[in-house]
Amino acid sequence: MSKNWSKTRKLLAPIAETGHCGVFLVRMLGGIRFERELLISTLQQIYLIGARSLVIIMICGFFVGMVLSLQAINALQQFGASDQVSLLVGKSLFRELGPVLTALLFAGRAGTSVAAEIGLMKATSQIEAMQLMAIDPVQRIALPRFLAGVISLPLLTAMFNAFAIMGAVVFSIGAMGLDPGIFWSKLQSGIDFGKDFMGGVWKSVVFGGIISLIAVYFGYYAKPTGEGVGTATTRTVVLSSVLVLVFDFIITSFLI
Amino acid sequence: MQNPIIRISNLVYRRGTKVILDDVSMDIKRGSIVAIMGPSGVGKTTILRLISGQLQPDKGSVEVNGKLISTLSRRDLYQCRKEIGVLLQDGALFTDLTVFENVATPLREHTKLSEDEIRDRVIDKLISVGLANTGDLMPHSLSGGMARRVALARAVIMNPNIVLFDEPMTGLDPIAMSTIGRLIRVTNDELGLTSVIVTHNVEQMKNLVDYCFILASAKLIAEGRPQALMHSSDPAVDQFMNGRVEGPLAFNHQDDPVDVNAY
Q: So what's the ipTM on this one?
C-alpha cells in the first residue's frame, strides 16, 4: 500500500508542481503594484535580458534567413518558381521559425541567467534577508524579470525576423541574382500582416511568459546550494524548450 | 517588572519526526543584549527563525512586541518584521547593489522619505558603524568584517526595537570580532534596542551580553548572567562554557539536526 502510494505520488509530482507554479504566477501577478520602483527594475531587466541578447539573436537570424532562402531557391527551382522565394521565406519565418527559434535562443541565453541569478541570491541568503526586511521577493525579484521576459521576447523576435529577411536578401538577391523588385513585391503582397506577422508576435508573447515564468520559478525554489542552482538552470532550459514547442503547436492550431 | 519584549513559552518544534526544540521557554527583557548559545546544530538558528516568523512552532507560542507571531497573516507578519532588524550569517548583502543602496533598501521600500533624507540617514548609519566613505563600493570588494558592519547598518536603518544576530562573529579575525562586539553594544544602548545573538562563541559573549540562554540536546539547560554560568556546577553547562572535551555533551551528537535549508 505505502509502496504504491509513493509511486503514485511520484507520478503525480509533475501535476503538483504545475499547480505550485500556477500559484506562484497568481501570487506574482496578484500582488502587482504599479509603482516607479517596478518600472525602473523592469526596464533594468529588459536591458539585462533583452538588450544583451540582441547580438546573438541578430547573428542567428541572419544565418537562418540565408539558409532558408538557399533551401527555398533549391527546391523552387525544380518547378521554375524561384521568384516565389521571398514568399516562402517570409511565411515560414514570421509564422514559425522566427518566434520558435528566438524563444529557444532566449531560453538558453536569458532563461538560464535569470534562474541562476535568483538561485544564487537564494543560496547566499539574499532572498531570506529580503523577506526579513518585510520586502516580498516575489514582487521585488521575480516580477520584474517575468515582465521583462514577456516584453523582450516579441521585440527580439521582430529583430530576428528583420535580420532573417536581410539574410534572405543578401543571399537571394546578392548571391543568386534574383530580381529585387520581384522579391519585395511578392513579400509585400503575399504576407498578411494580421495573420502571418501578428500571429507570430502573439506566439512570442506567450513564449516569453512561459520561459520567464519557468526561469523565475525554478530559480526561486532552487535548493540553496551550488548543485541546486545548477539543476534549476538545466531544468529551465529543458522544460522551457519543450513547452515552447508544445505550445507552438497548440497556438498554431487555434490561429490557423 | 515590565513585560518581556520577546516571550517564548513551552516551544516545541519538530522537523519530520526529529524534535529540534523541546519545551523551550525564554523571556527576553527589553533593552538587554541576550545570547542564545549551544553546540553547533542544536537549533539556535531555528529559534531566530521562529522569532522572525519564518517557521511556525508545533506547540507553544512566540510573542514579540506583545503579538503572537504564529497567528499573524502574511501582511501582519511583514508589518511586524519592520520592527525587527536581522543580521544573517555573512551579512547577506545584495550583491547587485552598492553599499549605500543596500542600506537604503528598507527605507526606499517602506518610507516615503525624499532622496536627501534617505542620503542623510544612510550616511549617518554608515558613519556610526565606522564606514563613512564606503557608500559607492560593491559588497564583493568588502572584507568579512566590513560586510558584517554594513549589514548591521542595514539592520538598524528602520530604527527597529529588536535586532536578531545570527552568528555575527563567525569567520572574522579577532580585531573585527571585537569591533563588531563593541558596535553591537553601542548601537544597542544608543538606539535603545533589544539584541538577540545566536552564537557558539563563548569567549566573545561573556564580556558582551547581559544574559545567556544555553541550549543542548533540544532543551534549554541553563540561563543566567554569563559570569554566573562560567562557574556553574551543572556539568553540561560547565563543559560548554569552558570548552571541555570531557563531559555529558557528545561532540558528534547522533541525531545532530542540520540547520541549513531549514525553511
A: 0.81
